[in-house]
Amino acid sequence: MSAVLRDERLLLPLTVKQLDSVLAVELQAYPFPWTRGNFIDSLAAGYPSQVLYGPQGELLGYFVAMEGVDELHLLNITVAPAVQGRGHARFMLDELCAICRLKRAQQIWLEVRESNQRARDIYARYGFVQVGMRRGYYPAARSTHASGREDAVVMSLALTTGAPHGLE
Predict the structure, then answer these.
(1) Is 103 in a helix, a strand, or coil?
(2) How far apart are CA 122 and CA 104, in angstroms?
(3) Which H/E stretch holds residue 43?
(4) Is the pTM of this model over 0.90?
(5) How many CB atoms within 10 Å of residue 26?
């Protein structure tokens, strides 16, 4: 994957050199963030991973996906908390769909915390549909979930004729 420049935002392949900055955002964004090891393992496996920068070189967000047979599984997509609500997630989803087209993937899958209504709404507006639940998928604070686990909503986007945004 090469650099993608649009709207003064720059998408670059994620590298180990960027992990300190990515981890700083990850820690700001989530109570149960990915570890350096999670990112290292994803990079070592060759997963499609991109970092989004703004016009002054500021880190806006990133995503990591895993290839499957005719599909991609979005493992992590994060927008820095300070710049959320400005279309950066949609921008990265557009790039993920472009990657899918190049790899001839027919579908994107993801899990999202059941409590993360904001993200679920973003995905739904983009065209993802809820297709299931994974019980106890995410770690959670015992103060909000007695089991210490939270359910995940499984969502999918079919990349076929008639799909949103002209994706085929």
Answers:
(1) coil
(2) 24
(3) helix 36-44
(4) no
(5) 20
Separation CA 40–CA 47 (nearest Å): 10
CA–CA distance, 82 with 16 (Å, rounded to integer): 23
Going by pLDDT thresholds of 50, 70 and 90, the confidence category of residue 168 is very low
Only one residue has tokens 């499957």, namely: 68
Structure tokens belonging to residue 1: 């994957």
Percent of the chain topping pLDDT 90 = 83
| Rounded Cα gap, residues 1 and 50, in angstroms | 9
Query: 66: closest CA among 23, 31, 107?
Result: 107
- Tokens 């190049």 correspond to what residue? 102
Determine the CATH number of domain 4-166.
Answer: 3.40.630.30
Structural domain spans, the chain: 4-166
